[in-house]
Design a protein that fits this description.
4-stranded mixed beta sheet; hypothetical protein PF0899 fold; 4 strands; alpha+beta; 2 domains; rod-shaped; 66% helix
Amino acid sequence: MTRNQARFIPGEELGTVTDWSFGDVDKASSKFAAKLAAQALAEEQAKEAVVRQSSFSEGHAQGYAEGYAQGHAQATLEGQRQLNDYIANEGATAAQSFAGLFASAQAQLAESEQVMARGVLELACEIARQVLRHEMSSNPNALQPVVREALSVLAIDSKAALVRMNPLDMEVLSEVLRQEFSNLSLTLLADSAISRGGCLVEAAGTVVDGTLEQRWKKTVAALGLDAQWDESDAIA
């Protein structure tokens, strides 16, 4: 292996010599360094912006929450004040008006109930009147319990009694009553002024009114009515 030996080059062989300048390398290095610095600054500014934005957002959210709470409290107080004002003014007037209407409705209802109740009683009395008319016309002995009750009351202090009856009733009951009250001095008197189904019993100055009109009057009076037994209702 042949070893190369250094060779000295004479100046005339070198030709034109140009000086080497490192300016371009330094300029590129400076630009690169500036770019890195700018990038670092931009990143730092971005971080600060994020921090400021975060702080602003938190502050804004807190401020919004505080403002909402304050507004809600104020609205609640205002609503309560308006409600209290309504209760003290329009509400009180409305309540009084409603109470008056309710009382009036109750009064009208009570009056209607009374009218209905009276109508029912009057209808019941009319039915009873017809039943009594039928009973007296179809049962000749229907008067017998009335005379028996009157004589039982008077016979305690007296041994004599006068019984006044309608002539038609007299025909049916005279013999029956004489037999039932044989211990009394019984006088039976036909009286056409007495409606059929009624009687007047007298003893020792005491009179028991067993007429149909009087018994009817007492019966309906117990129901709170004042209904007379008209002559047209007399039993033929």
